[in-house]
Amino acid sequence: MFCSNTNNALFFFSVDEIPEKIWQSLNCENNKYFGRCFLKSIEKNHSNITFFYIVLIDEDKNTTAFASIQIVNFYIDGIRNDLELLVRKIKNIGRKLHIIPNKKPLKLLICGNTFVSGEHGVFIKKNQNKKLIIKELAKAISHFSSSNKKLKADAYLLKDFVNESLFITNELKEDHYHPFLVEPNMLLTISKNWKTFDDYLASMKTKFRVKARKAFKQSNFLKIEEVTSKNIDEQLPKMTALYQKVADNADFNLGNFNLATYKDFKEKLGENYILKTYWLEDRIVGFISGIINQNSLDAHFVGIDYELNREYAIYQRMLYDYIEIAINKQLKTLNFGRTASEIKSSVGAVPQDLTMYLRHKKTITNKILKLFLQRVQPTPFQQKFPFKKTTPINEK
């Protein structure tokens, strides 16, 4: 694999290829999603995905931005991550318009993280012209795709920009990218008044507090075990079997997440990576994972034994456990991610819109793509309001 550098873009096919002086100049690793530990762990454990990285530079050869890119073989009938809900909506019409092939995979270039929701694709240094950076990134992506014959992408996706970023990222429209919304990230703001989990419960309306206590009563039979770098080798096969069971029952899949990545996360990120397993006697019935990044806890994959979920309130207990961790760590926000929006809203999370931008390489196909992306809308759900009138959601 090879791609010639340009006057303002450097291309690397591994985290290890990027020189130390570039990392120091970017100064981006305070955000763990742009750190070598996180990126290398994902890269190392997913050989079926092509990874590359773009470093943008100015005319004086100073670094200005960094982008994390993946190229995946996009099988329309195999999507199971946060793109799943989009695909459900465009699958039939996409095939009719021959945008999505029936058998041959679509090579999809993704700027962002394939396995995690959020703005984790582009890091821009301070005091930069962010609109110009986005334009330069779009040009660099096109240059990469056109100059590398083996890795030509059919479509480009830049994912998960919050509303506050849209005045910048809407520059992509000039390069014929089409914005659209899918399911929102569910975000819980941790109140400064919550010193303990009991404080959180006290802030809830009676109905939701009773629901929480019922979930704890149902899940009282569960034993929760911390997964550490010392016991992960023993736990991982059981977690993988549970994850695979859930994955096999799902409708779509965009490449399974390799749980061996957790071993790297625990070794490199230590206590900043949350990993817990849930047991009923000697049987594993669930696990949670998540990363503490700056002032936020981001929930990642969970595994659930759905046959026992209702009886033992496994998933609901997991949500409360995430909240308790965030409170105990004195964090500011908890990102629950997409899916299961209604139950997440019942524990206090509110929707945060995340905009994606998609462009097909073929001009005519891209024009057709625009027409039906305009019809893609997030699935509506009933937002719950579990807190008393003085809601911690609105506290500053």
Automatic annotation (TrEMBL):
The keyword RNA-binding does not apply. Gene3D superfamilies: 3.40.630.30. It comes from the Bacteria. One of its GO terms (molecular function) is transferase activity. Keywords: Transferase. Transmembrane segments: none annotated. InterPro entries: Acyl_CoA_acyltransferase, FemAB-like. It holds the Pfam family FemAB_like. The keyword Zinc-finger does not apply. This is GNAT family N-acetyltransferase. It comes from Polaribacter aquimarinus.
